[in-house]
Amino acid sequence: MQKVKKTLKKESFMQGIFAMMFSQVLIKLIGLVYKLYLTNREGFGDEGNAIYSSGFYIYSLLLTLSSVGVPNAISKLVSERIAIGDNKGANRIFKIAFFTFGLLGFIGTCILFFGASYIANVIVQIPDAELTLVALSPSIFFVSLICVIRGYFNGNGTLKVTANSQTLEQIFKTVFTILLVELIAITMGINTKVMAAGANLATTVATIGSFIYLFVFYKNNRTININSTGIITKKESIFNVIKGILSVSIPISLSAILSSINKNIDSTTVVRGLKTFMDESAAKIQYGILSGKVDTLTSLPLSFNIAFATALVPAISFARAKNDNNTINKRVSFSILVTILIGLPCTAGMFVFSEQILKLLFPAQAAGAVLLQISSLAIIFTVLAQTINGALQGLGKIMVPAIAFGVGVIVKLVLNILLVPIPSIGVNGAAIGTIACNIVACIIGFSVLRKSIKIRFSFSKYIVKPIISTIIMSVCSYAIYIGLNKIFSISIASILAILSAIIIYVLAIIALKLFTKEEIYMIPYGQKLYRLLLKFGIYKEENTQSN
Prior knowledge:
This protein has helices at about 1-10, 15-40, 45-65, 70-85, 85-115, 115-125, 130-155, 160-190, 190-220, 240-275, 280-300, 300-320, 325-350, 355-360, 370-375, 380-395, 400-420, 430-450, 460-485, 490-510, 515-520, 525-535. It is mainly alpha-helical.
């Protein structure tokens, strides 16, 4: 057990982030497998997706109300206790949260199970969705418990546990989706309603598998923090502990609810606005391009960047509890820098290669290049807001992200209503509204963050050099695409050009010496990387600072 204890403690801030980032990339790729399978499966297709999605939407809403915000809330409170050595207090928070949110999850499960008929027939008005809701109902209980355990280990600084459980869950979901749908098709024939229920039942099986993994891991490692090593705080009542958890989780959940509302603004305003100058069928097609393709593509960078938002909450809470402002400043500054380095190339890549990306992924339905170009401009502000929100939550400014995003949502609503009905703008007005929403949220969040801590902000390092690297990447990769397109098909030329863009961008960052020696050391295997850079003469031993 001592060996496990040592291993868990040695996970660094950046090791946890890289583990999360790798798992998110893997999860997206694995998830793509079952999504493509369902869409192309005979007897499922668009009709099956409609039944599957309608049930999943209600499930997601109940899940948001019962558990979203819980991992960050638990990780924040647990890390604060551990920072002052009150490890028994940290374990007590976990146990109370486990019972509390297990109860809330059970209530959510009962609502979905017993209310499936009413929800399917009256609210959603898709009667075939009833069976999918029943199949999904147990997941709410298990996900509520999963969120608590993940928050506990995040608070312990072991993000790899969360990353592993998420990857395992997605693998289970993909495997069981295919197995259950095929089993139903073999035993019952082509029955879209039952097949859709089977696909959603796979979600329940996957969450149970993830819960078993996490619970067993907790049982084997729960002694990590049993012995207190520092201050033992006054034992709080169960009511006060629950109150403390909810006071953190509810504002964080509010941000998630506002995000859902933000998406619903498009669903309620775009078609209505477009119908003022085109027929309903054409308006639905335009909205389908926005929601089905563009939003899916522009949200991908968020899944890569979520690691920083997740890791910053417990890391900053821990440092704040110890009054370690230097660590707070370093980690926030570094996280914002890396977020910029993630967001800018994603923005530029989707803007430059918008047409090629759509033709590559949706060869039969490739419309929407201009809309994707406009929407891509929101990516950099969205990922920045994501990281800033994680920092603010760690600092205890948990209402600021919700307020900032709330103001942004209002701005988007106004712009959607004003711009979408204009024939020369149309659906592009929704994309403009999204850009404005995220700019507003980013500005408000960053303003509060700068007042709260001293961020190490260099205009050259944070703005000029990343933009130069992005421009070099964009120009060179597009030139490569033009050359390759004369030899290969559009698809092959696009793939090779995008891969070359990644390599060129990394080389540009290295050539511009954007990272300091200290920052390179923060990256896993950073010491080896720095020695390699010294060997090639890119860095000099005495040159440990960057502009």
